[in-house]
Amino acid sequence: MISVELARALVDSGVLWEPAAGDRFVIDAQLLTGQVFWISDLTVEVQTFRDQSLLGFNGTTEWALDSVTLDQALWLPREDQLRELLGDRLETVRRTDAGWEATYAVRPGYVQSVTDADIECAYARAVLSL
Q: For residue range 112-126, what is the model confidence (pLDDT) as tens digits?
């Protein structure tokens, strides 16, 4: 899973999040970043209130949460979502002794690669370098 630090870096680089079912996130507060939530029509759903998107918590007894705004949530994109962000720039992915190596086109005729023990983190590092 992508780290909170890489997720923050993606936000800082301008990657936008359109919340949808199946997305995972943390509440970006010191004591809550260790708890990962998934958007689901049963427990956490995207709601709109006064033209603002909210993440509404439905029937969660273990949390005293009603809803949080998107600026309080930090998206943890999945592997497929990170591949989509890379698009056709992604050249190859291979397993090496050092971890997962993702090779991608920075511009026509110039490729670069990043390696990480976690494939999602490798993709996120590639997105950040574009």
A: 999 999 999 999 999
What are φ and ψ of residue 128, in 5° steps? -65, -25
Taking the C-alpha atoms of residue 78 and residue 120, their distance in angstroms, rounded to an integer, is 7
| DSSP string across the chain | ---HHHHHHHHHTT------TT-EEEE-STTTTT--EE-BTTTEEEEEETTEEEEEE-S-SSS--SEEEGGGEEE---HHHHHHHHGGGEEEEEEETTEEEEEEEEETTEEEEEEESSHHHHHHHHHHH-
Using CA of residue 66, residue 71, residue 76, residue 82, what is the dihedral sign? positive
Full-prediction pTM beyond 0.85? no
What are the φ and ψ backbone dihedral angles of 85, each rounded to 5 degrees? -65, -35
- CA-wise closest residue to 77 among 29, 125, 130: 125
